[in-house]
Fold this protein.
Amino acid sequence: MNNNAHLSMVGLLKIINIKASMNLGISEVVKKEILSIIPIKRPIILTNNIPNPNWISGFVSGDGNFDVRIINSSKNKTGYTVYLRFRISQHDKDIKLMELLIKYFGSGTIEKNSKDQVVNLTISKFSEITKVIIPFFEINSLFGIKQLDYLDWCKIASLMKEGSHLKLEGLEIISSIKAGMNKTRKIN
């Protein structure tokens, strides 16, 4: 783009071919419109170890997610159940990396999305979240906005430890915190 190559069809096609090989590739609409797309081959990176805990923090800062689910439930007096979930999503070609992360943490499951070529490492057991994930990121800090989501997530975990999620007042506080996390976070 610095050389204005994107202004020609040849240059634009090169950019589209690169994009086709990245992450989830390109949309079906673009594939139908441009029939000559040839994704650039990307090597599968095979590794047998995690370089260090800070590598995980950097990786999660980019591709991790700390989310909260509040769902209807007749099991609680409030009518709702609160779940915390830690996830990392990657292209399915990186499934070995996800397996390595599960081995490193000693917890988690891999969920495959059959519609897209995506695999998710998911940790949602409250005991694993409080005994593995939270202590890990207390020592190995995240970066950027992901750190703010993590801190809010930890506030909710603390409220849940106290049993606040089982009372309407606590559920309202949790809902309020959740409303300002992830994509809905407002940055000043």
User: Anything to note?
Assistant: Residues 22 and 110 are 21 Å apart (CA to CA).
